[in-house]
């Protein structure tokens, strides 16, 4: 074994540890691994940057723009709202929405679909006195089951397609994956409506829990009036001058002044007599506030978070995304109030409230933040990929009248693209390029919106991971890993090898993200097929589906992460509901691969 192989295996192992422990953002961890191969000469500069011009990676960028444009038309929201309507039973409602969601996810990136529909389903559940936890995991899983049906269903499929073309393989047609995945998707949807529905928990959501326990979250203090005007040390001082900005364990979220409600509170806001100061945080730290001259504790208050809202603001829940610029930073270091016109009321992680000072909480992917949002929040959040908004906003642009003409042009163009690709008239990349051009020329999407829809950190992750895959191939590390896999699984025959290959892919997906898992498993799958002298297509199809079939944890796949906090789920809920589904998809997919390709 050469030093290059040892170095590559060690770096890949350390990279995986970094991804599992969330030491830093995934794209940066994988990029550092790529740079280490470049610096040591294992990869040439041309090989290291080849991933940035990979056809699959570029197609993913176009897919982001198309999916974002369809999302912005509002058709998905309108259609789902009408579809749900009044239903006779929960199961009927569940069936009515998971079927079209799977269909949509087969042709659009499933992340914006789940982001769009999560607040709609939560609002519908609230109106019908139903628990969202019975619907949100099925929303995520149905989108995943739809995504494995076609080439354009997920970014993972397109990345593998690009890798196959780079290796001189034929690549996927639009419906190649459908042959293996359709039976698994059908059985999976049936499972979600029957057995899965029974296993799903009946959790309350964060806002309901907090409304019930408002007194555990809020402290109300009053700027005392019984001082002579000049003697109250707080009056006419700014919040910062009064020492209310960096309290130990407490966070000033609002000021109530007569009939006016001021939030988020700026450091320059001046205090007046009888101002009611509303704090949140570690309630046991109340003694620090009581020591301040000029402040009086308001006892017997019946104030709730809901009563803090004014006509221009609302309580909003958001989920921190994998690509957030807020990751691994303290809230107080992010300039949150100024950036988003919102104050953080509480932070929940793993369905438990973090009882630290809010400003000192270091944010992680999947953290659910309860915000008291101001009038500019909606506009500002639309320009950010830092988190997913899972509450339906009062002034969300998609709640206004939809431009029907533009919406149907967008959908018609997408359908035309699908037909052209289906009949092999043009390639997927050309079809998507033309679609994006039409969207831009007809002003269905603006250049600024197109740029915002592209998740550049995901593209960096994909491009860097492609370089890692090249290093595995070039050094022979992939061949060694494939040989070990075959040695372990060979006594069980071909079906045993396929089981091991699929299980390894799923494990990687659950711990290091789906795109990275797919790229790492691709060279192992190809080398294993070559060693066994069989068509590699079946092996590649298997890992492509396995890389997207993430049902066992909230962190393995973005759509699972989006519904994690809003559904009030625990980590174990994903295992309970997802394990039978994962086994069902695995067994069905392996049977189809064995039947069609091997």
Automatic annotation (TrEMBL):
It comes from the Bacteria. Its main location: membrane. InterPro entries: Cit_transptr-like_dom (IPR004680), DASS-Related_Transporters (IPR051679), Na/sul_symport_CS (IPR031312), RCK_C (IPR006037), RCK_C_sf (IPR036721). The chain crosses the membrane at residues 6-23, 28-44, 56-76, 97-121, 141-160, 172-193, 414-442, 454-473, 493-526, 538-557, 577-597. This is SLC13 family permease. SUPFAM superfamilies: TrkA C-terminal domain-like. GO terms for cellular component: plasma membrane. It is found in: Membrane. Residues 205-295, 303-387 form the RCK C-terminal domain. One of its GO terms (molecular function) is monoatomic cation transmembrane transporter activity. The keyword Membrane applies. It is a multi-pass membrane protein. Signal peptide: none annotated. Keywords: Membrane, Repeat, Transmembrane, Transmembrane helix, Transport. Pfam families: CitMHS, TrkA_C. One of its GO terms (biological process) is potassium ion transport. PANTHER family: BASIC AMINO ACID ANTIPORTER YFCC-RELATED (PTHR43652:SF2).
């Amino acid at each position: 074994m050469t030093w290059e192989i040892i170095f590559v295996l060690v770096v890949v192992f350390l990279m995986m540890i970094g991804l599992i422990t969330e030491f830093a953002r995934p794209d940066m961890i994988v990029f550092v691994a790529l740079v280490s191969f470049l610096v040591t000469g294992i990869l040439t500069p041309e090989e290291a940057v080849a991933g940035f011009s990979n056809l699959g990676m570029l197609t993913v960028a176009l897919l982001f723009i198309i999916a974002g444009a369809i999302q912005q038309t509002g058709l998905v929201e309108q259609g789902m709202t009408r579809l749900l309507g009044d239903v006779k039973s929960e199961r009927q409602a569940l069936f009515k929405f998971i079927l079209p969601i799977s269909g949509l996810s087969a042709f659009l990136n499933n992340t914006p679909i789940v982001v769009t529909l999560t607040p709609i389903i939560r609002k519908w559940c609230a109106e019908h006195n139903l628990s969202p936890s019975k619907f949100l995991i099925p929303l995520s899983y149905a989108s995943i089951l739809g995504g494995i049906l076609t080439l354009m269903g997920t970014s993972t499929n397109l990345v593998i397609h690009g890798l196959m073309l780079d290796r001189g393989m034929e690549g996927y047609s639009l419906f190649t994956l459908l042959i293996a995945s359709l039976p698994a998707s059908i059985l999976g949807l049936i499972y979600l409506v029957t057995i899965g529905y029974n296993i799903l928990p009946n959790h309350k959501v964060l806002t309901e829990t907090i409304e019930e326990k408002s007194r555990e979250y809020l402290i109300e203090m009053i700027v005392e009036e019984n001082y002579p005007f000049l003697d109250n040390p707080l009056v006419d001082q700014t919040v910062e001058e009064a020492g209310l900005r960096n309290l130990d364990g407490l966070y000033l979220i609002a000021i109530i002044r007569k009939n006016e409600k001021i939030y988020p509170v700026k450091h320059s806001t001046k205090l007046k007599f009888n101002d009611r100061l509303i704090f949140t945080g570690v309630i046991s730290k109340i003694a620090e506030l009581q020591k301040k001259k000029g402040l009086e504790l308001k006892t017997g208050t019946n104030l709730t978070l809901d009563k803090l809202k004014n006509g221009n603001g609302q309580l909003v829940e958001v989920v921190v995304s994998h690509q957030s610029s807020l990751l691994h930073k303290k809230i107080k270091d992010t300039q949150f109030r100024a950036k988003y016109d919102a104050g953080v009321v509480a932070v929940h992680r793993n369905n438990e409230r973090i009882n630290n000072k809010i400003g000192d909480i270091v944010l992680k992917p999947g953290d659910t933040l309860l915000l008291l949002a101001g009038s500019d929040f909606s506009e500002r959040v639309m320009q950010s990929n830092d988190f997913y908004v899972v509450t339906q906003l009062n002034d969300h642009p998609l709640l206004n009248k939809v431009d029907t003409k533009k919406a149907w042009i967008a959908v018609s163009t997408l359908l035309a693209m699908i037909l052209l690709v289906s009949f092999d008239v043009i390639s997927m990349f050309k079809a998507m390029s033309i679609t994006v051009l039409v969207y831009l020329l007809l002003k269905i999407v603006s250049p600024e919106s197109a740029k915002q829809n592209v998740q550049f950190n995901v593209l960096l992750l994909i491009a860097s991971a492609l370089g890692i895959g090249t290093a595995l191939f070039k050094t022979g590390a992939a061949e060694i890993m494939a040989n070990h896999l075959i040695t372990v699984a060979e006594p069980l025959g071909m079906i045993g090898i396929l089981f091991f290959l699929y299980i390894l892919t799923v494990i990687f997906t659950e711990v290091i993200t789906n795109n990275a898992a797919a790229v790492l498993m691709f060279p192992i799958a190809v080398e294993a097929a070559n060693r066994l002298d069989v068509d590699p297509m079946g092996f590649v199809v298997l890992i492509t589906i396995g890389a997207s079939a993430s049902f066992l944890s909230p962190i393995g796949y973005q759509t699972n992460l989006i519904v994690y906090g809003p559904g009030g789920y625990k980590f174990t809920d994903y295992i309970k509901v997802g394990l039978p589904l994962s086994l069902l998809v695995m067994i069905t997919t392996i049977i189809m691969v064995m039947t069609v390709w091997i």
